[in-house]
């Protein structure tokens, strides 16, 4: 196997990001993982408001630590003319600008693609918003939960009653938009190698999440009934979900086809006759009779421990899993065995950080510190050629 070299795919690429919260920071952290220099522009004294979400990581915010390693923090008050001049100089040397400011804010600062492309034809601009440019929702505020609601996610998640609808436990709409922005930027960089010009990447949270909702959308095609909210179970495949075991634990299991159903009946339930029962001999019938079948499965598991059920499932090659809490994930034996946790420095000490999921044999991902607010401001300004007097003036005017 080839040993990782010191060269990463985005070495030499400079990204400037006017970012806050999750979608844009998650996107640019992926770019930093691949070697890009990411300069995070933050408001002086305040910074990305995600810095204040909580204090769970040695006093730092969990969201911020997750999405901001390997970046440089530059404070600029973009309401100040001198700060705009600094941003202008930065963009003249940058490859990519990412922004997820409030709708219309970037355009008001002269940062539309049309304006920037005339001045910096190789610059790639990525705009991330809640609903996209144009349309009746363009100016509407968009937070992750609201997009989960607008995009139909809440209609298929949670329990069967309206009062039991549930949001995803992580920022799924932000993550979706961040990943599409990331891949869009990579595509734009490849395109620039062919055309010599930068291009405009636009990503909306709504469209990103709706793309992920295409299974339930097609399931309801032409007015067909929607899948019911089924908690942690699958709405349209059964048995597929959590089941209690006799020792008070829960096993998660899933069947995908009729061959597995027959093995499940014979090897796990020890009731081979159920395989041909007319109530259960096809997935659609198992779904229709799920409550009856669930009772039979629970009865079969009632005298068994989690370990015993898991042993039978593994013997039958039926997919299964533990229901881990967060501590279980921190201690997950597979992540430990594969050495997926690395140490990353922060202003509050060293913390574990998960390696990027896409592992390459050609390079090691960048895993540099999470920046303190404004930590790199003077270093970046000096790198732009600004004199000590000019930097002092920026301080005096509150521009940095």
Automatic annotation (TrEMBL):
Keywords: Transferase
Pfam families: CoA_transf_3
InterPro entries: CoA-transferase_III_domain (IPR050483), CoA-Trfase_fam_III (IPR003673), CoA-Trfase_III_dom3_sf (IPR044855), CoA-Trfase_III_dom_1_sf (IPR023606)
Source species: Pseudomonas sp. Hg7Tf
Single Gene Ontology MF annotation: CoA-transferase activity
Superkingdom of the organism of origin: Bacteria
Name of the protein described by the UniProt record: CaiB/BaiF CoA transferase family protein
């Amino acid at each position: 196997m080839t040993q990782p070299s010191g060269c990463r795919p985005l070495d030499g690429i400079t990204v400037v990001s006017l970012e806050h919260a999750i979608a844009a920071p998650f996107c640019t952290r992926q770019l930093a993982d691949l070697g890009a220099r990411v300069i995070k522009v933050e408001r002086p004294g305040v910074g990305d408001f995600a810095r204040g979400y909580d204090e769970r990581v040695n006093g730092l915010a969990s969201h911020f630590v997750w999405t901001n390693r390997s970046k440089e923090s530059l404070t600029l008050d973009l309401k100040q003319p001198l700060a705009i001049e600094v941003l202008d100089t930065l963009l003249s040397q940058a490859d990519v600008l990412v922004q997820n400011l409030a709708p219309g804010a970037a355009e008001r600062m002269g940062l539309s693609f049309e304006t920037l492309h005339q001045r910096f034809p190789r610059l790639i601009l990525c705009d991330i918003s809640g609903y996209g440019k144009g349309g009746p929702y363009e100016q509407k505020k968009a937070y992750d939960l609201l997009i989960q609601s607008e995009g139909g996610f809440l209609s298929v998640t949670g329990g069967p009653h309206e009062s039991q609808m549930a949001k995803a436990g992580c920022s799924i709409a932000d993550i979706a938009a961040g990943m599409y922005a990331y891949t869009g930027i990579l595509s734009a960089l490849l395109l620039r190698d062919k055309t010599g010009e930068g291009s405009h990447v636009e990503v909306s949270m709504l469209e990103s999440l709706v793309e992920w909702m295409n299974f339930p959308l097609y399931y309801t095609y032409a007015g067909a009934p929607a899948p019911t909210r089924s908690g942690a179970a699958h709405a349209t495949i059964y048995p597929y979900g959590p089941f209690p075991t006799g020792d008070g634990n829960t096993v998660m299991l899933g069947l995908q086809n009729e061959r597995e159903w027959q093995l499940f009946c014979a090897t796990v339930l020890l009731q081979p006759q159920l395989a041909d029962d007319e109530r259960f001999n096809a997935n659609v019938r198992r779904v229709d009779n799920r409550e009856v079948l669930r009772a039979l499965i629970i009865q079969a598991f009632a005298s068994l421990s989690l370990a015993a059920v898991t042993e039978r499932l593994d013997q039958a090659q039926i997919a299964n899993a533990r229901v881990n809490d967060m501590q279980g994930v921190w201690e997950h034996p597979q992540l430990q065995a594969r050495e997926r946790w690395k140490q990353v420095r922060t202003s509050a000490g060293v913390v574990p950080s998960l390696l990027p999921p896409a592992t390459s044999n050609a390079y090691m991902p960048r895993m540099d510190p999470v920046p303190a607010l404004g930590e790199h401001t003077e270093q970046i300004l000096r790198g732009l050629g600004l004199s000590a007097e000019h930097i002092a003036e920026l301080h005096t005017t509150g521009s940095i």
